[in-house]
Amino acid sequence: MAKITMDGVEYEVSDGLTVVQASAEVGITVPHYCYHPELKAPANCRMCLIELTPPGAPGPIRQLATGCSTRVADGMVINHETPQVKAGRALSLEALLAHHPLDCPTCDQAGECELQNFSHQFGKGFGNYAETKKTPPRKELGPNVDIVATRCVTCTRCTRFTEEVSGDAVLGLTNRGGKNEIDIYPGIPLDNKLSGNVVDICPVGALLSTDFMYKSRPWFLDEVDSVCTRCSKGCNITVEHRDGETARLKPRFNEDVNGFWMCDDGRYGYDFVNSADRLRMPMTRDGDDLVACGWSDVFDRIAAAVKDVGGENVAVIASAWSSNEELHAVRRFATEAVRTSLVGLLSAAGDDDDTVYPGFTIEKDKNPNRTGARLILGEEVAEDAAIWEVLKRAKAAVIFSGMPDAELSDDAVQALEALEFLAVIDTASSALTALADVVIPGTTFTEKDGCFTNSQKRVQKLNAAHGPLGASMREWEFVKYAAEALGADFDYTDDASVTADLVASTPAFEGVTPEAVGERGYVLGSGEAEPETNTGNYAYAKMFWK
Amino acid sequence: MGKPKELRILYENLDVPDMHTIEVYRQHGGYKSLDKLFGMEPSDLVDMIKASGLRGRGGAGFSTGMKWSFVPKDIEPKYLCANADESEPGTFSNRYVLERKPHALIEGIINACWTLGIHTAYVYIRGEFTLGKVRLDAAIKEAYANGLLGDKVAGQDFALNIYTHAGAGAYICGEETGLIESLEGKRGQPRSKPPFPAVQGLFQKPTVVQNVETLCNVPYIVNNGVDWYKAMGSVYKDCPRGTDPVNSGTKLYCISGHIEKPGVYEVEMGLTANELIELAGGVRGGNRLKAVIPGGSSAPILTPYECDVPLDFTSLQMAKTMMGSGGVIVMDETVCMAHALTNLLDFYAHESCGQCTPCRNGTPWARDISKRIEQGLGEPGDVDRLIEVANNIANVDTFTWNTICVFGIAVSWPAVSFARKFRPEFEAHIREGKCVTLPVDEAVTPPEENYAWPQALAEAAQKPAWD
After folding, report:
1. What is the model's pLDDT at position A527?
2. B281 with B267: CB under 8 angstroms?
3. Domain residue limits at B360
4. What is the count of structural domains for chain B?
5. Is the pLDDT of residue B459 over 50?
6. pLDDT tens for residues A239-255?
7. Nearest CA-CA partner of B123 in B164, B85, B174
8. Has residue B24 got a pLDDT over 80?
């Protein structure tokens, strides 16, 4: 810890922090545009000005220092509110706003714009600029990102992101001085899998997500903490939603998992949530057609099928896209209600290798909870192509899917068509539902509570952003009633009761409590939960990363 | 001091035919310093340079010996960058060294590198200096061939290689960290300091960046000793704290503009502006003097009333202007000051690297206001606005700046000094709605109303000297 004095008050702050971070740690906002804790600090926006007295110096340095490039040291004295500092910030803001079009009414960033926020808090309320404004054109930088260059404050966070994190350096400055603009080299678009992050780090409305463009004013969005489903990394995210629809996903800071970033596969990979093909009603097959039916029909037909072929001939296939709780319920369903040993794990096809960028890695396993599934179903559970062998030994099957764009091999189709009875739980019409006798509408990750276990064995919490669609019910509820129809009694009343049952019956999950999981997750077997922290980048993220 | 006269040391024998060849350079005493140099301890040499009072000729006038003493001894490799990116408007003295006496620079580099234990030196040459680069490259080749560079410099157990690098035409690459960035192959943008180059410079290693003229002085000091060097120039007593009172040696003054005999004059430091003008044949056609820029276009302008100031680091600093690069620009009574300022600010708006906010947006802003005034489109209050906008980039009254590098000062000093010292002429433009050139006496702000600088300077001097 370093002892420093800020604005006349003594504080103890973590070692090695920049003044911007240290100030955030104690709750003081230091305005800044160019600085980002994960990127180099060029000190170019001149907003984080501070009056600095280095340790042991007789008085403050005459020049204002920048809080982004100054690291705290024992005995340092910092002032954020001297007249010189206030004037310096206000003048930088005036200069930044000189060419700004002030088009907040039509700007997607309005409401979450640092130019607005800092002008409101630190600006002088008027500008003297009366000359001609620059009007650089709006440009498409890549498939996911547009630039409205008139709003740009040339902080170069985005160019440094492409240099240091994505490593392809596709963004750069063209021209010089007042004429400089963020741009790509002609013909080389911003098209890497981390491109969406530049929109997050853009402090103003210059870089815009084409996915979110004109979708909603940000202040109408509600948000919940969640976990990304698109690979086994389990990036911490915030689901922002409105009127029962997911509007966008944004990365949420977790030092041990994803830092400040997430990949575009995850960021834009929520389209299946709002898909028009979503299933809203249970359905049963009538010839070539699936016909909507009541829930009792579903349970009756499953119970009848199990009775027909005998429980030991029914395969239960769980999904690597299900939460720990759902997987646990499915395991119990297979062993205690259906009484079968034919269990498999359906998973989405992965990549051959991790996708590695200098500052971020996208994992090759494209399932959010394979680790949890193995812990719950057992390491020896049939996975990938092996599940079709399991199905070939069965006469009926209940398959949990919930993964978008699942593709079936010829082998799989053959195995499925040979079944006498097939029940599929899925979120949308798919290759699986096309072959099913009974189709049960499932929930997406934005509609359920529960936990995923990522590749680090870190249990992380999902929170339901909006309720199940139409008549669909959460998977554990479906399992409970289906088990009841088979004569088993699962004493589940809510999500927490399933979690409690999982933890009580699965030794690997010992210690998993809502408190232990918290916001940062709980690594299985680590013994004790990492304490919630409000230091360093966590404090920074809370203050500036929303 | 009697009639001012030139004192040629660096420029000695500059006009001798083929002086750029090693043969002729040696005939005239070239590379003689090496005999003494390699007999001396590097630490003694640093002390010697410190004692000589040699100050960096690039603009800031920082003590060269002091700068060298900051270089860590235990970190390898270290680099020397000779700054030959002479791009300050009104400055052209290094150019003639490169074109006519390039071996003087090489000799200076060898001296500096031995002193600092550096084995790699880069010369960053302004891209426009085509002949200078050709001559220097040829001279370096000759030096290698003659065993003065390479693995064993002059037969000593000391390796030194020199590489030349041509700039691509950016003023800001003359700023030491901008130069380093450019040399590393990046966009020429100054770095935020600290760390200073002496600690972390080129390729993150300790780096000394010196102006060509500074380096060329070193062999003469080594050769002739500290006393000989200190006998030239001016020394002051009773300077405010934080002001270096020593101005040793000669200075290459580049005098241009409305002057009878423009060119480079090597003179002992301490000569006044008026004397230098006299030395260069006086103002053209016997016209009246209207203004003098004493140290390259970034230096605050002097009115005719102020031209008795000695042209050395200390006096010019006390007069709230600067020695800068020694580029003296003379303007006679025909000059429209609004036009002159617009011209300068246009240059700075073009050359601003655009990295930091105050300079990127402030410089074109100041230029636009100045341009409007010049074109007769100014409005009442525009002069104050111009001063305010410039002061917001770098405040001339408090000597503080909000920018990453001192380019901000280079913009605001001329802008504020022009507007304050020639305010009547700017106001006349606004009043009349057209370009007006007033007679000298009417154009200049009366000395008694002339800005509050001396007082601000006195206040600044009360601040602790260590920053």
Report:
1. 80
2. no
3. 337-462
4. 3
5. no
6. 999 999 999 999 999 99
7. B164
8. yes
Q: State mean pLDDT over B426-451.
A: 88
B455 — contact with chain A (CB < 8 Å)?
no
Rounded to a whole number of angstroms, the distance from the CA of A36 to the nearest CA of chain B is: 16
Alpha-carbon span B415 to A404, nearest angstrom: 64
Interface subset of B 184-223, CB within 8 angstroms of A: 187, 189, 192
**Number of C-beta neighbours around residue B326 at 10 A:** 29
Residue A71: list chain B partners with CB under 8 A: none
Nearest to B402 among A42, A64, A175 (CB): A64
**Chain B closest-CA separation from residue A127 CA (Å):** 11
Q: Is A220 on the interface with B (CB under 8 A)?
A: no
Q: What is the pLDDT of chain B when averaged over all its residues? A: 91
**Parallel, antiparallel, or unpaired for β A283-286 and A289-292?**
antiparallel
Are B263 and B165 in the same domain? no
Task: List, in order of start, the domains of chain A with CATH numbers.
Answer: 2-81 (3.10.20.740), 283-447+458-536 (3.40.50.740)
Closest residue in chain A to residue B381, using alpha carbons only: A128
What's the average model confidence in pLDDT over A353-361? 96
Among A46, A58, A176, whose Cβ lies nearest the Cβ of B464? A58
Same domain flag for B156 and B253: no
Residue A98 sits at the chain B interface (C-beta within 8 Å) = yes
Last residue of a domain, one of B279, B311, B332: B332
A177 in B contact zone (CB under 8 Å): yes
Residue A310, sorted as left (phi over 0), alpha (psi -120 to 50) or beta, turns out to be left
Nearest C-alpha of chain A: how many angstroms from B23? 44
Per-residue H/E/C for A402-433: CCCCCCCCHHHHHHHHCCCEEEEEECECCCCH
Instruction: Answer for the pair A406, A269: CB distance below 8 angstroms, yes or no.
Output: no
Q: Tell me the percentage of chain A whose pLDDT exceeds 70.
A: 100
Residue type at B407 in one-letter notation: F
Q: What is the rounded average pLDDT of the residues B71-76? A: 91
- B9 in a structural domain: no
Averaged pLDDT, B87-102: 95
Residues 329-348 of chain A with CB under 8 A from chain B are none
Q: Has residue A9 got a pLDDT over 70?
A: yes
Tens digits of per-residue pLDDT, B33-55? Answer: 999 999 999 999 999 999 999 99
Cβ contact A469:A440 at 8 Å? no
Cross-chain residue pair A46–B403, CB shorter than 8 Å: yes
Residue B2: predicted pLDDT: 57
Tell me if B357 and A95 make a contact (CB, 8 A cut-off): yes
Comparing alpha-carbon positions, the chain A residue that sits nearest to B372 is A131
Domain boundary among B332, B351, B374: B332
- Do B262 and B399 lie in one domain? The reply is no
pLDDT in tens, B439-454: 999 999 876 666 534 5
Query: Strand order in A245-251's β-sheet?
Result: A222-227, A236-242, A245-251
**Is residue B395, in this structure, part of any structural domain at all?**
yes
Mean pLDDT of chain A: 94
Residue B112's nearest CA partner among B190, B37, B196, B184 is B37
Model pTM score: 0.93
Statement to judge: residues B69 and B180 lie in one domain = yes
- Asked if the C-beta of B177 comes within 8 angstroms of chain A's C-beta atoms, the answer is no
In the DSSP assignment, the letter for residue A188 is: -
Given an 8 Å threshold on Cβ–Cβ distance, is A69 in contact with B349? no
CA B256 to chain CA mean position, Å? 15
- The secondary structure of B194-231, three-state, reads CCCCCCCCHHHCCEEEEEHHHHHHHHHHHHHHHHHHHC
B8 touches chain A (CB under 8 A): no
Dihedral, CA atoms, A6, A12, A17, A19, nearest 10 degrees? 0
Taking an 8 Å cut-off on Cβ atoms, the answer to whether A178 and B398 are in contact is no
